[in-house]
Design a protein that fits this description.
The chain is α/β, with parallel strands linked by helices. The chain is built from 5 helices and 5 strands. It has helices at 12-24, 38-47, 64-73, 91-99, 111-126; strands spanning 3-8, 29-35, 52-55, 82-86, 102-106. It is globular and about 30 Å long.
């Protein structure tokens, strides 16, 4: 089953790197939607079917944690798995993200690491 992704990061270079890593990972890809901040990400969720969101933490307008909070408060997006890719991974932050049902991947990352986390998330959803 093809997976539709939403990549939310204020760096267009990082969005491209994540998209390339997804293409290299061997995952059955559907559409890859992109947004430059959490507000734009929420707008994309209103416009498109998204199976999994990959979100940065530090962004202008609306940061990643605020976006996740909004997603979790909405019935139409509260079950969408979220992976946070960031270099800001203190233990306290990772614990907060776990409470919000979000996974964390440290930058720098490999396509294999993204693939493994996605496969685990998809496996949990299908279980």
């Amino acid at each position: 089953m093809a997976i539709n992704f939403l990549i939310v990061d204020d760096s267009s270079v990082m969005r491209s790197m994540i998209a390339k890593a997804l293409q290299m990972s061997g995952i059955d890809l559907g559409a890859i939607h992109q947004a430059g901040n959490g507000k734009e990400g929420l707008d994309k969720l209103d416009e498109h079917v998204v199976d999994l969101a990959i979100v940065d933490i530090t962004m202008p307008v609306m940061n990643g944690e605020e976006m996740i909070d909004c997603m979790r408060s909405r019935s139409d997006t509260n079950q969408i798995p979220v992976i946070v890719i960031s270099n800001e991974g203190s233990e306290a932050r990772i614990e907060r993200l776990k409470e919000k049902k979000a996974w964390f991947i440290h930058k720098p990352f490999t396509p294999e690491r993204i693939r493994d986390v996605i496969n685990e998330l998809v496996g949990r959803q299908n279980a």
